[in-house]
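hey so i finally got around to running the thing on that chain from the lab meeting. sorry it took forever, my laptop kept dying and i had to restart like 3 times. anyway pasting the input first so we r on the same page abt which one it is
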Amino acid sequence: MKKLKYYGGQGYYYSNENGKFEVKSKEIKIFNKLSEARKYYDSLNEEKAIWDITKIPELLEYHHF
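ok and heres what got predicted. didnt touch it at all, straight out
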């Protein structure tokens, strides 16, 4: 089984808990809380990206095989 590798992103430091967050993998899901988006993101074992789309879209984290 392939292992996911961290690719990049600005991290979570500048994002607030409340906002609009998008997790992209095989499907796209939108969350209003960063903690819920991260929990879902961390549960995925596939190529994935998490974005803070509250104002200007910012890539928070991306993993690929």
